[in-house]
Specification:
Order of helices and strands: HEHEHEHEHEEEHHEHE
Structural class: alpha/beta
Number of strands: 9
CATH class: Alpha Beta
Organism: Crenothrix polyspora
Protein name: Polysaccharide deacetylase
Shape: globular
CATH architecture: Alpha-Beta Barrel
Strand content: 15-25%
InterPro entries: Glyco_hydro/deAcase_b/a-brl (IPR011330)
């Protein structure tokens, strides 16, 4: 048993019903050799993962590799759209591809072009979900997604809440790479954050960025996956499976600072 994961194990042991969680990896199309290593870890563990694909970053090798993995285990991998080109269009403030400086028309053109590209590449393997680069977007983005028949939007739980009567919004709660980069005790902080969220959320989302994860830094992830799949109180799900579930704990509740 890995000491940093003791809080996670404790929550799983004490949970009155199965703990549901999903993993979302962003930026498919960049540093794809590391993406494949990450997917190997999930395939080995038998844990599902959703992959957010940048339309303008795809190539034939990436498409073939992801389709092969999807065909081999459709219940274990989901593919969806990650913006269009993952480009920052803001001249000031936080980076954003679909931010306040862009009109609805500009946003819709990019989202639509990306949707067409990914549908042509992945066919039925592509799911009608959208993750905005840098995990934030605007109300105009939501309108575009509704009009383009997307069903689900996934961004960071700390991002501004956006109203929608058609679009299911499923946030991620844990930024794996950010914690490892910024915490003086990264694994301890990571274990505590995961335990806190799975203890109070109906569904907990964990965000990964494979580009930041070499073979050595995949080891803690492998340790977490081993604990999760080895416990009868864990239910690893896909983004599409979150429809119908919500987030029970409030941002105001005391959770570890990320």
């Amino acid at each position: 048993m890995f000491n940093w994961l003791m809080p996670v194990r404790t929550v799983l042991d004490e949970a009155e019903k199965p703990v549901r969680l999903f993993f979302r990896d962003d930026d498919a199309g960049w540093v794809n050799d590391r993406l494949y290593l990450l997917l190997d870890e999930f395939a080995y563990a038998g844990m599902p993962i959703d992959v957010a694909v940048i339309p303008r970053a795809i190539n034939h090798h990436l498409v073939d590799e992801l389709l092969l993995r999807w065909q081999q285990g459709r219940h274990l991998i989901g593919l969806h759209q990650h913006g269009y080109g993952h480009l920052n269009h803001e001249s000031a403030g936080r980076r954003c591809e679909f931010g306040g400086s862009r009109s609805k028309t500009q946003q819709k053109v990019d989202i639509s072009k990306g949707q067409v590209m990914l549908r042509a590449a992945f066919g039925n393997a592509l799911e009608p979900h959208f993750t905005p680069p840098w995990n934030r977007c605007t109300a105009k983005t939501v309108e575009c997604l509704e009009e383009l028949d997307f069903h689900l939007l996934s961004k960071d739980v700390t991002a501004a809440q956006l109203e929608s009567s058609k679009l299911k919004q499923v946030p991620v709660h844990i930024d794996w790479s950010k914690i490892l980069k910024t915490s003086p005790t990264p694994l301890v902080t990571l274990g505590e954050a995961i335990a806190a969220h799975i203890g109070c959320n109906a569904v907990t989302g964990i965000m990964l960025h494979h580009a930041n994860m070499d073979a050595e830094s995949l080891k803690p992830l492998a340790e977490l996956l081993a604990v999760l799949v080895g416990h009868s109180n864990t239910q690893g799900i896909r983004l599409r499976d979150t429809l119908g579930y919500g987030t029970e704990c409030k941002q105001s509740e005391k959770l570890p600072m990320l």
